[in-house]
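Ticket reopened. Same input as before:
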Amino acid sequence: MSSVGREKAEEFFRQLEDAFSGSEEQAQQISEELRADFDEHLKRFEGEGKSEDEAVELALAEMGNPYELGHKIRQEVPPFVGRSATIIRYLLSVGVIAWLLFFLWVMRAWDYGFQSFPYALFGSLHLPVILLLWPRIIWKKNWMFTMSIATAAAFVLASVGFLGKESEQEVTYALAEALAPALEGPVDIKGVVMSSDGLPVEGARLSWEEGPLRTWTYSDTEGSFELLGLPEGEQPVGVSCDQGPKEWFYVAGGEELTTLELSLSHAETMPDPNTVALEAQDIGEPNRFKRQAYLVSGAAGIFLLALVFSMQQNRQRGQLLLACAAAFAVIEIPFQVEEYLFQRDMKTLHDFSQAQVEAGTPFDWEEVDYVSLGSDGCPEELKELDLWNDRVRFYSYGSETFGAWWPRPLSSGHSIGYDSSDGRTYVQD
Amino acid sequence: MHGMSSRGFSSDLVRSSADLVILTLLRDRPMYGYEILVTLADRGNGEFQFKQGTLYPLLYRLEREGWIRAKWEEPPKGKKRKVYSLTSSGKRVQVARTKEWQRFTAAVESILKECGDE
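Engineering reply: fixed in the latest deploy. New output:
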């Protein structure tokens, strides 16, 4: 090729690269591809007997206007897809994914039981960023437009997450109470528990205790109760309802029915409508939740589907859903297993505690100052228990209730706590 | 039509069939850009004479859609070329578009025939 021809060709490709205005690497690749075409045109025209300069002119004419060509290609080629840009994008994507997994792991350790809220909120915030960074995601229509909407949707979700009133509903876990021990005293106390407004109180707990002896019962639907086998003389009977303090009555047993009138109105003796008591086998539900968690979770589900269907390739849609499911499973399954084992340990401790109370010899383990069950200072009776996590710290105040802390094996900074006096399960960091 | 020499065809007609034409060519075998231009002209009875300004934006769009993939290949003799081939998704699109096109042309032909008879 003559120097004039070469200059014209170089000028063409320079103008093409200017008009393309993408990364240097991309511009070089496009230029290289088109140079090969230019050479083919040149060869064809020279083969047809054209002079070198004529062939160059004709070949350039075949290639068209370089500005127009570069501009058209720029509209179709997504930015940052060169080799080095791709490597950086992969590294950044992996970094964001690792950060998200770590963050969700820590968030999960703060909760007891599955909560959709952190997954929905933080997943929705990070997913658009990951998809934007991850190379070769093929979007339908205009990828920039799609991502703008996706990012805006993620921020709306985040905003919703911090709005709204926190629900006052609490869920407690009422473990089945130990059977009241049978006493052998000569006196029975029978009677009715009434509210201050003269209505029978159902479900009031009546308890008596003297030294190591203790017994208890509950009033029935008529408010009636029986405390059997008590010693002679006036006996202190404590009456407590779900709400309100324990009230004390000194009662001498006998044939006559005793009426115990509480200072609480009937409405005040009823269980708190915001408290839901669950049976022991239901342990594992979160003890607090927010209403907006449901809203965020639902919106996040729709958002994920919108993201999935905004992707062009079926394969990528499937991969995205699979990746989301895998990330969820990687975090949730270990915690579910851990909490299942925790429940098993709690049941073991509960059965043990109940057996001790039934035998009328509840220990006062407060003395050992929350000693880990696997440690030397632990009472032998506790050491013999078959517990999965022997780092659990158990304590009791010499009554039928107990508490325990389980250091979370999956997160060294958190412990699961349980207090059988109110059935609360909580996480402490 | 600018950049797309299709002689007697309107630009709208050529644009609406361009995807199908390229996908059908690549269904036979992988090709590089210049090869596609030449083959189009040959098999299209000289009616399809695309220029680079039409072909490459089209190829990059099809690649972005995931219907074709590009790979640099260096033959033992000759220059390194970027070769385009059909993806499985592209094959499905090609089959669907072909059926659609056949239904469309049959319908148009039917109308033309009916009206021509009158």
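The beta strands of chain B are 4-5, 31-32, 49-50, 68-73, 81-86. The radius of gyration of chain B is 16 Å. Please confirm and we'll close it.
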